[in-house]
Amino acid sequence: MTKYTKRVLPALASVVMSSLALGLAALSTTVRAQDATSADMTQLIRQGAYLAQIGDCVACHTAKDGKPFAGGLPMSISIGTIWSSNITPDKDTGIGSYTLDDFDRAVRHGIAKNGETLYPAMPYPSYAKVKPSNIKALYAYFMHGVQPVSQANKTTDIMWPMSMRWPLSVWRKLYAPDVVTDDTPVSATDPVLRGRYLVEGLAHCSACHTPRKVTMQEASLSDDGSTFLSGTVIDGYLAENLRGDVKDGLGNWSEGDIVAFLKSGRNEHSAAFGGMAEVVQDSTQFMMDSDLMSIATYLKTLGPAHPDQTSLTYDSATEKMFHDGSASSNGAIQFLNNCAACHRTTGNGWNGTFPRLALSTTVNTKDPSSLIRIVLSGAQMPWTASAPTHYAMPGFADRLSDQDLADVLTFVRSSWGNTAPAVTSEMVAAVRKSLPEKAPATDLQTRLINGICRSKTR
Questions:
Q1: SS3 for 18?
Q2: Is 208 annotated as a binding residue?
Q3: What are the backbone dihedrals phi and psi of residue 61, each rounded to the nearest 5 degrees, phi first?
Q4: Is 269 annotated as a binding residue?
Q5: Residue 436: predicted pLDDT
């Protein structure tokens, strides 16, 4: 070995070892950074998944028996039918090619990637109140936490010229609010602020529970008047008054009652039905208790839409009439034969099983649309983790005439202290006409219904 070799090799080895050490250190730093980035992304996706549940995105963007978020759910509007879009990360038929900015423009501004204005069946007027940081989490979830599905979107079933999109852009500019920023105050320690943020934003409660004007915009998007969340008919059901009215609102519900309803689909006052049953089953039952309590706390701050209402008081005269065997009106007889087995002659039902009718906010609403539809078509409580038993009420469309059904509902709405307006046979006929056709009941179903209705009434 030469002197040169003896002198250079150790030095070269030292350089190599030093370089290797530096390389390993750099590699270790890179791995740690990647791990941190991966952990951050995982957390962001989880947050987005939770926010998507609050927004109940799956309800509108999943067709019956379809793949989650692949769209294809028909929605009837006044001028025709539209179908929800594919929001899976499929690049050809979904939103896989959307950037975060594209996603934000669609969700909060109501503008699709191709520049067309979305139909306001997509509640972007409510989502305008969602903070950009939450939109970023939603985007991470839909891009990395949802399975891509190749399913082409359907075109609208709306005749020209109503199918033109440019009027929608005018509507959007007139009625859609400005989007919020991340500076919008939403304190985790202030349940009212948190509840308002959820109710007005992602949960978009106003989309169903606030009346709309002639031009189809919500009468109010926040609590700046008595119309916000004051109730309206949607899909044939009355989305009930969520304000502080003591007769047909939440005035006599406690915060705990509201939380129980959103978590289980039932409480001592009422049970979820129609579209609200799906909201509970797909969305609110999965919300954190703290968020449910924030929603309840906020709702209890809303004043009544009708301050002149007075609280109802239970009246035992109807119960005594049944006990004495003196019931004689057609409404009372129809109730005894068809309803009393479950709802009892006291009108109090069975807590958590069969909803009470006495002093019920659903019973005492001015608009009887929900009651008529439930009696005609039946109803089912949602399946929830906290109340997994699935109770259902059969429909009586084939059993009761329009007049019989009007009589029994008028009886219910004026008994046990209830003070709601009468129901007419014309009201029943109008709702019956709007119902979709159904397959005839089987002999077993008929025997089951008759058996329930003829069982003991107390």
A1: helix
A2: yes
A3: -100, 20
A4: no
A5: 82
Is residue 57 part of an annotated ligand binding site? yes
The answer to whether 301 touches 410, Cβ cutoff 8 Å, is: no
Burial class of residue 193 in the structure, from the number of CB atoms within 10 Å of its CB (0-12 exposed, 13-18 middle, 19+ buried): middle
| Tokens found for residue 235 | 């899909």
Beta bridge partners of 180: none
In a domain, 365, yes or no: yes
Distance, CA of 324 to CA of 13 (rounded, Å): 107
Residue 60, marked binder: yes
205 labelled binding-site residue: yes
**CA separation for the pair 65, 24 (Å, rounded):** 52
- 248-282 pLDDT tens trace: 999 999 999 999 999 999 999 999 999 999 999 99
200 lies in some domain: no
Residue 96 within any structural domain of the chain: yes
CA of 59: how far to CAs of 50, 67, 96, 384, in Å?
A: 14, 12, 20, 16
453 annotated as belonging to a binding site for a ligand: no
What pLDDT score does 224 carry?
84
What pLDDT shows up at residue 77? 73
How far apart are the C-alpha atoms of 266 and 263, rounded to whole Å? Answer: 8
Q: Is residue 32 part of a domain?
A: no
Largest CA distance in the chain: 125
Instruction: Please state, in angstroms and rounded to a whole number, the distance separating the CA atoms of residues 27 and 323.
Output: 84
- For residue 254, CA distances in Å to 196, 269, 319 come to 17, 10, 27
Based on the number of CB atoms within 10 Å of its own CB, is 145 exposed (0-12), middle (13-18) or buried (19 or more)? middle
Domain end residue (candidates: 149, 184, 219): 184
- Structural tokens at position 317: 């005269």
> Which residues constitute the domain of residue 338?
317-453
Is 306 labelled a binding residue? no
pLDDT at site 3: 41
Q: Single out the residue of 155, 156, 159, 139 nearest to residue 52, CA to CA.
A: 139
Low-confidence ranges of the chain (pLDDT < 70): 1-36, 78, 161-162, 187-188, 438-458
| Residue 256 to residue 399: CA distance in whole angstroms | 38
The DSSP symbol for 354 reads: B
Q: What CATH code is carried by the domain that includes residue 422?
A: 1.10.760.10
Q: How many domains does the chain have?
A: 2
Question: What's the predicted TM-score (pTM) here?
Answer: 0.85
Q: Which residues pair with 80 in a beta bridge?
A: 77
Domain termination residue (choose one: 117, 150, 184) = 184
